[in-house]
Design a protein that fits this description.
With 193 residues, this protein is α+β, with helices and mostly antiparallel strands. One of its GO terms (molecular function) is pyridoxamine phosphate oxidase activity.
């Protein structure tokens, strides 16, 4: 099944492309780790196999944005339990709040989803349990005009892949391959699991 490096490369590309568009797949949710050893689960919004990038959405006020701006090294972990496939990615990330990528991502969102950027910034302390949303938007979809103040809080994280580590768990013997991006192409090699 996974007996060539080409087959492994095709597998992880297919998994990431599908995961970015199908919220029911396990790899739709990824764990992003930043250089401060903090990790969080994010939704994979896009994977570009030509540019070797991943895209996530975030709140520009989130502490992870400052961490990435100071040290762009990131790790991303995907896992599909039923397929027994783990994909670990190392790369460098950037935060984009303006420009064609951020603008297109903002426009593609629903008003209900965009309302998350109307509230308090992530990590803001509260004396009571809170969604962080202004009370008038709890369970309510705002209008386009009501979302105008939210747009500056929206950001995308673009992670440029540098290394992909693919791991397949099998009772017949685990398989592991690693790919490094060099001159725009992935160079693969087998590794002992």
């Amino acid at each position: 099944m996974f007996d060539t490096l080409d087959a492994v490369r095709d597998d992880f590309i297919r998994r990431l492309e599908r995961a970015a568009t199908d919220r029911h797949l396990p790899m739709h949710l990824a764990t992003l780790a930043t250089s401060d050893a903090d990790a969080r689960v994010l939704v994979l919004r896009a994977f570009d196999a030509e540019d070797w990038t991943l895209r996530f959405h975030t709140d520009n006020r989130s502490p992870k944005c400052d961490v990435i701006r100071a040290d762009p090294r990131v790790g991303v972990l995907f896992y599909d339990r039923s397929a027994k496939v783990q994909i670990r990615i190392k790369g460098v990330a950037r935060i984009e709040t303006e420009g064609p990528i951020a603008d297109a991502a903002w426009e593609a969102g629903t008003n209900f989803a965009r309302r998350c950027y109307l509230g308090e910034g992530p990590g803001t302390r509260s004396t009571q349990m809170t969604s962080g949303l202004p009370p008038q938007f709890e369970g309510i979809e705002p209008t386009d005009d009501e979302l105008v103040p939210a747009r500056p809080n929206f950001a995308v994280i673009i992670a440029d892949l540098q290394e992909v580590d693919w791991f397949f768990l099998s009772h017949a013997g685990h398989r592991r391959a690693q790919f490094t991006l060099a001159d725009g192409a992935l160079q693969g090699r087998w590794l002992a699991p």
